[in-house]
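Troubleshooting: if your tokenizer reports a length mismatch, compare your output against this known-good record of 426 residues.
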Amino acid sequence: MRKRDVAVATVTAVLVLAIGGLICWVLYTHGIKGLSKPIMQTLTGNNSQYAEEPATMPEDAPKWDSEQTESYPAIAAHMKLQGRTMRDEDQITWLVQSGSAAEFTVTGTKAVLTLAGDGTALGKENHKPRYAVYLDDQLLTDALMRTKELEIPLFESNQPRTASVKVIQLSEAGYGAVGVKHVTVTSIYQEPVQPIPAKDLRIEFIGDSITCGYGVETKSEKDSFTTGTENFTKTYAYLTARMLNADYSAVCYSGYGIVSGWTGDGQKKPDSILPKYYNLIGILPKYKKQWDFEHAEQNDVVVINLGTNDYSYLSPSFSSRSKEFIKGYADFLKQVRQKNPNAYIFCTMGTMGGESVYGLIEQAVGEYSAATGDTRIKSYASPVQTQEDGYGADYHPSVKTQQDSAQLLTEEICNTLDIQPGGSFQ
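Known-good structure output:
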């Protein structure tokens, strides 16, 4: 090759690398869907939920002759319902699972949100459901549900305004749910409450306490669990969905596993296994009903982060119990695939140790794929948390560890699915 050709090739290579780097920077600073709206901020930013700005009401939107005050229920016609929710006979929509949410825009001169509490709202203080309300992407309320009914004023103004509202369950399903009854609006518009539009990508997260955000907001690893320090919006799951500008759902319970829940004596805990409850809305009696997979939004991606609690059962007799775990994991993959026929499945674990269990997961994924011919599945190891990054309650992942896990999972999803700006698949 002539010197001139070598120079040209070198310059070309440098340009390719530069362009590739620029594309990666754009993806992580502007999000996967859309390059300018919303602009993604760093994971250590403020309480903004980075939703798109609500559209104002069209000029030709139907109006009343004068302002009317009406209440609008938390149903799909008025609100986008994320995650596993349940509508009961009292016309309350319960946000059951971690991160379950109701999102909508409201236009008027006054709006008041009415929430509800279940029996857990009157229970132990440290185990009451935690929720948050965001108005125009800014945190309005973050509290424990302590009453059977609660009114939250959203806004009141002389001139009509359009605001985005998000109500989200921050704590896990094992400690109760937060209900959304309705939003009462004073408005001249006949349809002042509209659901936030759905995203192009949808991800489901299946996991244990790591996915729930157990103790993520505590100051010390010596702190014990409370729902007041559990926050799904600080987890790798929520942050990954945010980075990909995706809708999401979660099914997660602290202490749960594939064949056994966490055990301190090595004895099997078969009641604390997620496969047993995956098909249900929740585990408390009120919500122990079948989830309607047929009519629910279909997931494009499913992430399984289980095995950490199984390690406590496997470790005393690892070699003799390994086959049980491999079979149980493969069987659960079949269950997940049946309910998510078109999703790409990602299997991971390792944040809290138990690297030997990850080897079993790799084996289970390989055997499952070989037996079924399913190639839309892969596994990857989550790096073990470090003391330098800090710990949450009971040595659970810190905010920094959750952020690092989100970054890694986002890269895995993007690289595997070859997601292009706009959130579409090639």
